[in-house]
Amino acid sequence: MINLENFLLSGVHLGHSIKQWNPKMSKYIYCERNGIHIIDLLQTALCLKKVCLYLNRNNEKNYVILFVCTKKQFRTLIKNVAEKTNAKYVNYHWIGGFLTNWATVKTCIDKLKMLEKVSNEEMSSNISKKEFLSLKKKKTKLEKYLIGVKDMVTIPDIVIIIGQKKELIAIRECIKMRITLITIVDTNCDPFLTNYFIPANDDSISSISTILNEIAQAIIN
Questions:
Q1: Closest-CA residue to 170 (of 66, 83, 81)
Q2: What would the pLDDT profile of 154-189 be if each residue is shown by its tens digit?
Q3: Can you tell me which residues the record assigns to a coiled coil (predicted)?
């Protein structure tokens, strides 16, 4: 059961300025108040229900799910939700070609695993301190981009996007690779750039946390 009052308290209904709106979102806007578009929470609940049913049904197929959001304020939230649902995540920076050039990215992941192994071992007589520190530096850099997908052996079956305007490169790659897209769309977004969408405030931590909690439960259940 989806609690609309909880949505209201979490600010899920608060859209962007009317000057920033995308006309394609008109069906999912309830009204305008003080220059801000108010999202129709009934539409949010209906769309979220469709997403949750889809995830719940397909979780039995052991699909690989990838959460993508590189907004700084959501990094910890995305990591926690992904780990809770046994999913993968990208929360720092989307590498161009991550999906369309997966073979190269997989090589980088393998390199990260090798560097982790080396850094966890004691320095052998064959590696100088300078070389060892250099390897650790490379490992730290790769971890920023790849730590959330370190155990991913193939491209994902489902990608969940938070922050459509910021993640357009990832979205285009998903479309090209015909990967199912689920996107939280604010009033300035395009609901036609995704397979499933949830109209909601995509800037607020409380709003995204509320939506992701419902999604996580659908995956876990």
A1: 66
A2: 999 999 999 999 999 999 999 999 999 999 999 999
A3: none
Same-domain status, 61 and 127: no
- How many of the other CB atoms lie within 10 Å of CB of 216? 19
Q: Are 95 and 176 in a shared domain?
A: yes
CATH of the domain at 35: 3.40.50.10490
Question: Which residues share a beta bridge with 14?
Answer: 38
Which letter, b or e, does each residue of 63-87 get, where b requires 16 or more Cβ atoms within 10 Å of its Cβ? ebbbbbbbbeebeebbbebbeebeb
Its pTM stands at 0.91
Domain that holds residue 120: 102-149
- d(CA 65, CA 51) in angstroms, rounded, equals 13
The letter for the amino acid at 33 is R
Provide the domain count of the chain.
Answer: 2
